[in-house]
Design brief:
The complex is a heterodimer of chains A (240) and B (259). By secondary structure, chain A is an alpha+beta fold. Helix content of chain A is 39%, strand content 21%. In chain A, helix 2 packs across helix 4. Chain B is built from eleven helices and five strands; from the N terminus they run E-E-E-H-E-E-H-H-H-H-H-H-H-H-H-H. Classes of the chains: A alpha+beta (240), B mainly alpha (259).
């Protein structure tokens, strides 16, 4: 094990769950102000892991509205209620769920599915893989790393004049993101080609000495993501 | 024993009726007699006579009963109920109470309502399927939290190629080394962890400690932590990581000097 791994492990171990860490129930009791054991409160005061767990539990329980998320939270809640059926309403059970409660029908359905899947795998293994050009975008599954980024990458003397990546035949446009290493998005843009010319606004985001990431998502005609790249890292070296 | 009177009836549309006679006349349904806290509850006094006890189809459960039952009692009734449609009403009410919590929790993770809705659906489905394993020793909301937390953390970890994870390695690599320069003082991993734990607890303030732990131990991206903890300062969790790192460097220097 190298020195750096040792160092990282020691910090991680120091803040990870230990043998004496509290259960969620004990944390809930502490949050409610009714600890079942005084030792729990003592442990909490000296344990970063339990404090972090408690902070997460508190965040969940209080469901504090973050800035501007009320409308989104209401929308999600409505989706959830629509999905399960409202209380008081007749149970909104899809007809097939009723069928699947009958063991014989469920078994038959599972069998048919297995046979169908087996057949399709057999047929597809006997056929040549279709060329990407000939397939429909509907059949594509978005995968990270499907787009290969070319430039920029690594240490640069000055801001890159453009960003380049390998074209994806089915892509109608590309979404480009410039990010800080912690994932904060600094800049968002779109391009119809597999190149983006660096505009002055984008250049201002590239502070010398700061490591940045960029990634590309390919979009279909409807603006739906069909593939994405892994992030590429670059840094404009500090002016000497 | 005088039965307490429930005066509110509701159906899914949100309409509320204080007069059960009007309610039954308009909708032609049978209202069940309910039992709340061991007392038979009849609706609106004298009109209760017109209500039948019911195991009939299309049962509508009084809003008051929903509200008075704890989560755990709803689960107990769900388990005891033999009528499928009525059993689902109990679980629907149970989950409805917690939808907002789950929604906000997932929003903190994704900051995008469509993905958050997907995550929330998955969490609710998982909880619904595992409801039989809920043993009643925990609060339902604590149990639901454990499902939501694990599901969202796994989701974050499964996307480990995202930049947030890269940043984790970049930042953690720059933390001070606890190893002493004297080769005679080789420490065991356990001892090092204990020293790290002490230093984190003594040198950092509570929010710094929590942010540091969530970021480095749980692998949560900083923007997720900012939303989860509702950190409203300009740079959110990042500011706490930066100050934590500075304080840890100082604390490690002092600890090494003492050692």
């Amino acid at each position: 094990m190298d020195e750096n791994t040792k160092k990282v492990n020691s910090w991680r171990d120091g803040i990870s769950a230990g043998d004496h860490c509290l259960t969620l129930d004990a944390l809930q009791d502490l949050m409610d102000g009714s600890p079942s054991d005084l030792k729990d409160a003592q442990h909490l005061s000296g344990c970063a892991h339990c404090q972090a767990e408690l902070a997460m539990l508190r965040s969940f329980e209080r469901a504090l509205p973050a800035e501007n998320d009320q409308a989104a939270a209401d929308w999600i809640t409505a989706q959830l209620q629509r999905a399960q059926g409202m209380p008081g309403a007749p149970a909104n059970v899809p007809f097939w769920r009723g069928w699947l409660r009958v063991p014989r029908i469920a078994t038959a359905a599972a069998l048919m599915l297995t046979v169908g899947l087996g057949l399709s795998l057999y047929i597809s293994s006997r056929q040549e893989r279709p060329l990407l050009h000939g397939s429909s975008s509907e059949n594509l599954t978005m995968r990270s790393g499907d787009i290969r980024l070319t430039d920029p990458s690594g240490e640069l003397d000055r801001e890159p004049e453009n960003f380049r990546w390998e074209a994806l035949p089915l892509a109608k446009s590309y979404s480009i993101q410039l990010l800080e290493v912690d994932g904060t998005v600094l800049w968002n843009g779109q391009s119809a080609e597999n190149i983006l010319i660096t505009n002055p606004e984008l250049k201002t985001k590239m502070r010398p000495g700061k490591t940045l990431l960029w990634k590309v998502t390919a979009l279909d005609a409807l603006g739906k993501p069909i593939a994405s790249s892994s992030p590429n890292r670059f840094r404009v070296t500090a002016a000497k | 024993m005088a039965a307490p009177t429930a005066t509110v009836l509701s159906i899914d549309s949100g309409q509320t009726y204080s007069d059960p006679g009007r309610f039954t006349a308009q909708f032609g349904v049978t209202v069940a007699r309910h039992f709340v806290a061991g007392c038979a509850v009849a609706f609106a006094g004298d009109d209760a006579a017109s209500c039948e006890t019911g195991e009939s189809n299309g049962i509508i459960i009084a809003k008051m009963e929903w509200e008075q039952l704890s989560d755990e009692k709803l689960i107990a009734r769900y388990r005891a109920e033999t009528n499928q449609s009525r059993a689902e009403q109990y679980t629907n009410e149970l989950f409805r109470r917690h939808h907002l919590k789950v929604a906000r929790w997932c929003l903190a993770f994704t900051n995008d309502r469509e993905s958050a809705a997907d995550l929330a659906q998955e969490i609710c489905a998982k909880a619904y399927k595992s409801l039989f394993s809920f043993n009643g020793q925990s609060k339902f909301s604590t149990w639901l939290f454990s499902i939501a937390r694990n599901h969202c953390l796994n989701d974050i970890r499964s996307r480990s190629s995202l930049p947030a994870m890269d940043s984790l390695h970049v930042v953690i690599d720059t933390l001070p080394d606890l190893a002493l320069e004297n080769p005679d003082s080789m420490m065991e991993r356990k001892q090092m962890a204990e020293i790290a734990r002490q230093i984190v607890c003594e040198a950092l303030e509570e929010t710094e400690r929590v942010v540091f732990t969530l970021h480095f131990a749980e692998g949560l991206p900083l923007d997720v932590i900012s939303r989860m903890l509702n950190l409203t300062n300009a740079s959110g969790a990042k500011a706490y990581v930066v100050s934590a790192k500075r304080k840890l460097e100082r604390a490690v220097r002092m600890w090494k000097a003492k050692s």
